[in-house]
């Protein structure tokens, strides 16, 4: 059983930055894909960024060039550096651990989820 605890969300104005983090209770990042998803009110959960067991990253088109996913295997911690934030980025952000070493944005591929951290961007 893996427990994930997110922190680092908050409220910022458009153009600002946030860096949520996700602490895992056990060593997972060296073996499995880890990802960030987000869910806005009334919308489905969607993938934002992912990093596989080899450190290869992928991003949703909407955040490419503005968001950076990274991990610290020694600390079992996942990060999401979010720059140039826009009001449409407002959502609950969740970290997740896949059951596979490779990454996808299918929520069904992820066996463990954090409780989420709220990101609110005002115009």
Major sheet size, sense and barrel closure: 7 strands, mixed
Q: What is the count of helical runs?
A: 0
Overall outline:
globular
Report the radius of gyration as a whole number of Å.
13 Å
Distance, first to last CA: 40 Å
Mean pLDDT comes to: 94
Residue share in helices?
under 10%
β-strand number: 11
Description:
With 123 residues, the chain is mostly beta strands. The protein contains no helices and 11 strands. Strands 2, 4, 5, 6, 9, 10 and 11 form a 7-stranded mixed β-sheet that branches. A hairpin with a 5-residue loop joins strand 5 (46-51) and strand 6 (57-59). It is globular and about 40 Å long. 36% of the residues are buried. The model has no long low-confidence stretch (mean pLDDT 94).
List keywords for this structure.
mainly beta, 11 strands, four-stranded antiparallel beta sheet, 123 residues, globular, single chain
Summarize the topology.
Elements: E1 4-7, E2 10-13, E3 21-24, E4 34-39, E5 46-51, E6 57-59, E7 67-72, E8 77-82, E9 91-98, E10 110-113, E11 117-122
Parallel strand pairs: 2-11
Antiparallel strand pairs: 1-3, 3-8, 4-5, 4-9, 5-6, 7-8, 9-10, 9-11
């Amino acid at each position: 059983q893996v427990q994930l605890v997110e922190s680092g969300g908050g409220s910022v104005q458009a153009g600002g930055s946030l860096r949520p983090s996700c602490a895992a209770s056990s060593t997972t990042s060296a073996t499995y894909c880890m990802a960030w998803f987000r869910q806005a009110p009334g919308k489905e959960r969607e993938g934002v960024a992912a990093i596989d067991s080899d450190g290869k990253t992928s991003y949703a088109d909407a955040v490419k060039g503005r968001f950076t996913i990274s991990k610290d295997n020694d600390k079992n911690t996942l990060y999401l550096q979010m720059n140039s934030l826009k009001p449409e980025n407002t959502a609950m952000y969740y970290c997740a651990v896949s059951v596979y070493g490779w990454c996808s944005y299918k929520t069904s591929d992820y066996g463990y989820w954090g409780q989420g951290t709220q990101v609110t961007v005002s115009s």
